[in-house]
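User: Please predict structures.

Assistant: First:
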Amino acid sequence: MSKRLLAIATTVALAAVVAAGSAQAATVSLRVESSTDPLPLFDGSVTTLPHAVDGGDGSGPHPCAGPSGTAPAATATGALDDAMRAAGILWRGSWNPSFRDFFIDRIGPFASVAPDRYWSLTVNGRFASGGCLAQLGDGDSIRFFYGPLFGAPAPTVPGDRNAATDPEPAPGAGALGAGSPGKRTRGMAARATSYLRRHRGGIGAAWGRLTLALRSGTGVAGAAAALIPGGLDALRGGSLAGDVNATALAVLASVERHPRQAGQAADWLASVQGAGGGFGFRRGTIPDVDTTGLATWALALADRMGPARRGAAFVRSTQAADGGFPALPGGSSNSQSSGLALVALRVAGTGPRVRSGAGGTPLDFLASLARPNGAIAYAAGVDPTPTWTTAQALLGLTSRAKLLFARR
């Protein structure tokens, strides 16, 4: 307790900062807190340099200075690492080679536990998906929060069960059941839909709402808008603060009621598309599969089929030997990236049964991760956010007509 109190409202000044060469240091405000404790673990300013970070998972230090291909800069996880080490607070993160970032397992006494207790990150009040990818400047405000995603209480559903212990059996033989590939895929989708209806709380609940809305054909605009930090009111000049993912969601939220606004957002998306057809989370950043899948979906919805097909072509080029898709080209396949890749392939007219050089399809890959209770795991033996994972995987099992709101 004394170490924590000493850490509050302190300035962490590292010797490495004093000896800094050409690397750019950043002084930021950092708050690390839990929803279950009235006192923060840390609340103060941190001066940090870009540096390799060891999350203590046995895999050694990893680059933690922003997206690959960008100039090294101070990052949110780098600031956390500096602050926790200086304050004597232990933290642990598992390195994910597909995302090229850490999943925060524990900070101090607070460990991530399914279904709705995880460490999430915001930078200047906006959710950041990766702490080693979130580059910082002087004066930025960083918050690591333990509890429901975004710090909001998760809705409770009577009879809701933990994804890891849900005993409900699935019909058929094994996770997929018997029958033709098409029938097995439909069965997998039906069980995943049932799973999301039973598990409406925890991390990824908003994505579950969007996926269920698409499959029912009602409430899609509201569900997409709920995923946008700050809402649609922040839409300016065609984009939401230059955020590709948020702008793509704005197209989904506005294409039916405000087509002109959606068209402007789609035009902005096309303007930031990379030469190879991919999209990074911001203009000029390294293209990733998840962002490209979402942006391609938005472009197709807004009838920008040329850019949409280029986005699908980029996605297709990243397919792994197992048939699935990684978050970044060359990484390991995961179900969320595979689901969003399938969205891009479907809306562009390519279809879901593309085969890798080894003969695998993304449907085969998702099938390998389908669980008897209906959930779809992130990867073999990895399932930290089952609702979120299942929701985005299920997007890839949704028909082209439903993804395009039956516009075609």
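Second:
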Amino acid sequence: MLIGTIVTFINLLIFALIVSGLIYLFILLVKALRKYLKAEPIRKEKAETARSLGEVLKSHRTACKMTQEFVAEALGVSRQAVSKWESGASDPSTANLIAIAKLYGVSAEEILRKVRKEE
């Protein structure tokens, strides 16, 4: 009789732990979903402001009121190379990216931080 009561108590305890665990998981799921839904405007804003490397380079160049020709001469490359970088047809080398950043008065990290990450 005592053993049957103990077994029943243990079974109820296990059941209670399973149920409470499921309730806890459900609560965590609801919290995560609410956080995700609240972050939707932020995700949309980031997607709208995310740009390619070429777009970032062009915006910095125009903000500095420089022409493609001026940038090309300052870097020792052709104007067509600068045009290709800005159109996304090619990317500048690391050395050229650092030189571009210096010319625009920003860090290369700042330029790359504004570039969207391809998924």
